[in-house]
Every structure is written in structure tokens, then in C-alpha cells.
Amino acid sequence: MNCNILNVYFIMGTINCRKDPLETLEEALQAGITCFQLREKGEGSLTGKAYEEFARACQKMCQAYQVPFIVNDDVELAFKLNADGFHIGQEDLALPIFREKAKGKIVGVSVHNSREMEQAILNGADYVGIGPLYKTQSKKDAKPPAGLYFLKAIRKQSANFPIVGIGGITEENANAVRSSGADGVSVISVICHSEDIGQTVKNLLSKKKIN
């Protein structure tokens, strides 16, 4: 997998946004995000037909900007829409079975320890999301922050495997995340709550990974 896809990986659902979600996504796409994950979860999130219609609108927008469209957890919807990829947690689905069904798709897995990292690679993940690196308000069920030390350890363990950092990442600490071994940063609030999405994405993109 091309690690450039992970450069600025935007995750969003309707409940995360302070203004119109599709407007938020389009501004982020215009500014240069490199991947988008639809994560429609939490109290007040869309369901049923409204959820599917919103997902299709997001996908169409991503296609116009040639940015991968990833669906979080909802395997049924992802296959229905023929999404570019899927992101699954440790509790969601047996990865080997899923990998077989999702040939040709991007498959990402959330990882919280070294054992899960080994299993993700062994079972066919294309990339892993490591975190939360910092305290985050975007996920009510988030695990305690893993910190950059864990990210560095995982990078040492898996020298060339695609890794995106997630959880509490801001314009100010994005470079530290890359310097600690991540190929990119995955963000929710920093874009969804930004007063100037174009500038925020530009700042996130401008942080260079230090080898």
C-alpha cells in the first residue's frame, strides 16, 4: 500500500461537525486530505436510509477528488457501496475471514498493543491505526492514551509497515507523531472544529516526517 494515502487521514461522522458535514468534507478534500473514513457512530448519528444516502454523498465527493473512501466497522454498507476500504477494530470481525472477502480493498485495523500488531500483519491488514496517542474527546469509549513511546516501539517492531497515528492529534503535535514513526496522522476534531479548514489541513500536510 502507498503510505502517502495515510498522510492526512480524515475521519468524520455527522455528529462530529459544527457545520454542515458535507461542506466540512468538501473543504477538507479541497485542502488536500489524502484519505477519508466515514465513522457514523454515537448518539444522534444517522441510521437507515438517511445514513446510506449520506454515505453515498461522501463517497461521490471523495471520488471526485480521487481520495480513498473508507468505511468504519459497517462491513455490510462498505460492500454495498463498493467502498475503497474498511477500517475495523479488534472486536469487529475475524480479520482472516474479512481479508478473504475484501480482496483488492484497503483494510485497516486499530491496534493497541504489540500482540495485536503482530496479528494484524499476519492476518493481512494493509495498515494499522495506533492510538489514542493523546487524550481525545472524539471517542467516548476511547482507551487511555498510549503515548508516543508506544508508537516508537511499534515502529521499531515493524520497520516498514504502514502506520497512522490517531487520538488527540493537533496541528501542533502532528510533527511529533510523524517523528515518532507514523506515516501519517488521523484526525477528527482538529478539522471538524476548525474555523479555517483549508489552513488546518495545510498545516497538517506541511509537517514533514523526520527519518
Spatial separation of the terminal alpha carbons: 19 Å
Task: Tell me, rounded to a whole number, the average pLDDT.
Answer: 91
Order of H and E elements: EHEHEHEHEHEHEHEHH
Question: What is the overall shape?
Answer: globular
- Biggest β-sheet description: 8 strands, parallel, barrel
Spans where pLDDT lies below 50 across 5 or more residues: none
Tell me the strand order in the biggest sheet.
1-2-3-4-5-6-7-8
| Strands, count | 8
Query: Any idea how many domains?
Result: 1
Proportion of strand residues: 15-25%
From the alpha carbons, calculate the radius of gyration and give it in angstroms. 16 Å
Name the helicity range. 25-40%
Structural class designation = alpha/beta
Tally the helices: what do you get?
9
Give the oligomeric state.
Answer: single chain
CATH architecture: Alpha-Beta Barrel
Pathway: Cofactor biosynthesis; thiamine diphosphate biosynthesis; thiamine phosphate from 4-amino-2-methyl-5-diphosphomethylpyrimidine and 4-methyl-5-(2-phosphoethyl)-thiazole: step 1/1
GO molecular function: thiamine-phosphate diphosphorylase activity
Organism: Carnobacterium inhibens
Protein name: Thiamine-phosphate synthase
